[in-house]
Amino acid sequence: QRNISLLTFDPDGDHVQCRYGSNSNECYTCTPPSVLSLSSNLTAFSPTSSSNEGSYAVQLMMEDFPRQTINLTHYSSGTTSISSSSSMTRIPIQFVFKVDPAAPSCTAGEYLPRFLPPTPEHGAQFFIDVNEMIEINITAEATQSDQRITELLFSGPFNMTKSSSGSGYFTLTWTPSFSQYDDNETHPICFTVQANSVYQSDLRCVIVRV
User: Fold this and answer.
1) Which of the 8 DSSP states describes residue 166?
2) Which domain of life is it from (predicted)?
3) pLDDT band for position 60 (50/70/90)?
4) Who has the most CB within 10 Å: 49, 135, 155, 199?
5) According to the model, what pLDDT value does residue 132 have?
6) In whole angstroms, what separates CA 77 from the centre of its chain?
7) Phi and psi at residue 96, in whole multiples of 5°?
8) If phi over 0 gives left and psi between -120 and 50 gives alpha, with beta otherwise, what is residue 143?
9) 14 touches 86 (CB < 8 A)
10) Among 102, 55, 57, which residue's Cα sits nearest to residue 198?
11) Are 63 and 17 contacting, i.e. CB atoms less than 8 angstroms apart?
């Protein structure tokens, strides 16, 4: 089984959960992929037969819940009470999940790349100022003789850059500008590494506060 950790984060400290879309306003063909199981912030893929190879559309909703009952006041509609079991907002999360042919071994670090120190853990937070540069060093390995870490795939701020000092050694560099500052604004950065055989590592995401 492989686990895919979703970045569920709210800067206000609200409790964030994910669920599958359940109606026509949230999803198109709302049947969840049979190869996945979902908890509040974790998607798990269980080994399947070769007949399950292919691409699957994953349509999720991410919701935030207050830690305790709160009152929200709107100038036109008055005050509304929201309990800890009622979501305040929700946003759609949609992506394609591809099931490749089976790897010779599912042990992380052999064919499937695994992260090594000093790679930050999933959910790590960094604090920087405007015009201050941050470097995120990422190291990974795949030990089988025919495997080589060839690519770092990432998402983050538009002006983030990637460099490599050799197979399995990468650095993400970013210097936030004034236009990317908004009083303790948070920026998510997610990454995975890929071997020459297209096998990928786990997904990790971190938060940078400016």
Assistant:
1) E
2) Eukaryota
3) very high
4) 199
5) 96
6) 36
7) -105, 130
8) alpha
9) no
10) 102
11) yes
Q: Where are the domains of the chain?
A: 2-99, 114-209
What backbone phi and psi angles, to 5 degrees, belong to 4? -115, 110
8 A C-beta contact, residue 151 and residue 193: yes
pLDDT over 70 at 148, yes or no: yes
Beta-bridge partners for 19:
61
Cα 97 from Cα 70, distance rounded (Å): 37
CA 57 to CA 35: how far, in whole Å? 11
Give CA–CA dist 109/113, Å, rounded: 5
Query: C-alpha angle with apex 107: 102 to 108, nearest 5 degrees?
Result: 105
Q: How far is CA 201 from the centre of its chain?
A: 13
Say if residues 97 and 33 touch (Cβ distance below 8 Å): yes
The CB-side HSE value for 85 (13 A sphere, CA atoms) comes to 0
Give the Cα separation of 199 and 141 in Å (integer): 12
Give the model's confidence band at 167: pLDDT under 50 very low, under 70 low, under 90 confident, else very high.
Answer: very high
Is CATH 3.30.390.50 the classification given to domain 114-209?
Answer: no
DSSP annotation of 108 reads B
Q: Rounded to whole angstroms, how far apart are CA atoms 114 and 142?
A: 7
Closest CA to 120 of 202, 57, 175: 202
pTM of the model: 0.84
Closest by alpha carbon to 44, among 15, 99, 81, 1? 1
